[in-house]
Amino acid sequence: AQSVAQPEDQVNVAEGNPLTVKCTYSVSGNPYLFWYVQYPNRGLQFLLKYITGDNLVKGSYGFEAEFNKSQTSFHLKKPSALVSDSALYFCAVRDDNAGNMLTFGGGTRLMVKP
Amino acid sequence: DAEITQSPRHKITETGRQVTLACHQTWNHNNMFWYRQDLGHGLRLIHYSYGVHDTNKGEVSDGYSVSRSNTEDLPLTLESAASSQTSVYFCATTTGPNTGELFFGEGSRLTVL
User: Fold this and answer.
1) How far apart are CA A7 and CA A10, in angstroms?
2) Which pLDDT tens digit goes with each residue over B63-106?
3) Closest CB from B42, B48, B101 relative to A106
4) Which residues of A touch B106 (CB under 8 A)?
5) How far is the C-alpha of A89 from the C-alpha of A77, rounded, in Å?
6) Which member of A12, B3, B27, B87 has the greatest number of CB atoms within 10 A?
7) Closest partner residue to B100 among A6, A90, A102, by Cβ?
8) Is A28 helix (H, G, I), strand (E, B) or coil?
């Protein structure tokens, strides 16, 4: 079985400050990890993914995520937050036997204040 | 550009009625998925299909059915709508086999009174 936890319902950050959105996962095999973003009244959009290789993954809009196998975490980060980054962020996981079936976390709302 | 479209975007229905939500993609991808989004639950998989005439149950499939008669469409049917099925429904397809990168439709908001 595979599962994802996003421990924070909401993260508040001032514009220009670094941001971190946390995600931990559980899989039986090798993890494939993803971050998606959802703007109001829209579908989810793919941000970045970790399959293998470098533990620091860079994605769209200046976001990056760090894979930590020992802590089973895949936290989303950005060095300098923008007001336009305010949205709902979802972490997702699948193991290497799950085909394209992703399991999503509950989501974290990011609020960036001017 | 290729796209994935859902209809209707908003629907209000009554308990016990049959409802069908449409999903159409123009990528010609085999893999298609239906999720529901509820506060506190994130997205939960309802049904998925890996190709024509292939359908599979997801985590929360009770009360829902799908059929895949062609590559482009995966309609989701609620045979007898219940208030617990009030939700936002998202259809998705993948960019390719085993990539995990999903393209989502804009969603269908269903209210069951």
Assistant:
1) 9
2) 999 999 999 999 999 999 999 999 999 999 987 666 778 899 99
3) B42
4) 41-43
5) 11
6) B87
7) A102
8) coil
Nearest CA in chain B to A41: B106
pLDDT digits (tens, 9 = 90+) for A38-74: 998 888 999 999 988 889 999 999 999 999 999 999 9
**Shortest distance, CA A107 to any CA of chain B (angstroms):** 6
Residues across chain B: 113
In whole angstroms, what separates CA A84 from the centre of its chain?
Answer: 17
Q: Taking CB atoms and an 8 Å limit, are B31 and A100 in contact across chains?
A: yes
Which string of b and e fits B43-74 if b means at least 16 CB within 10 Å? Answer: bbbbbbbbeeeebeebebbeebebebeebbbb
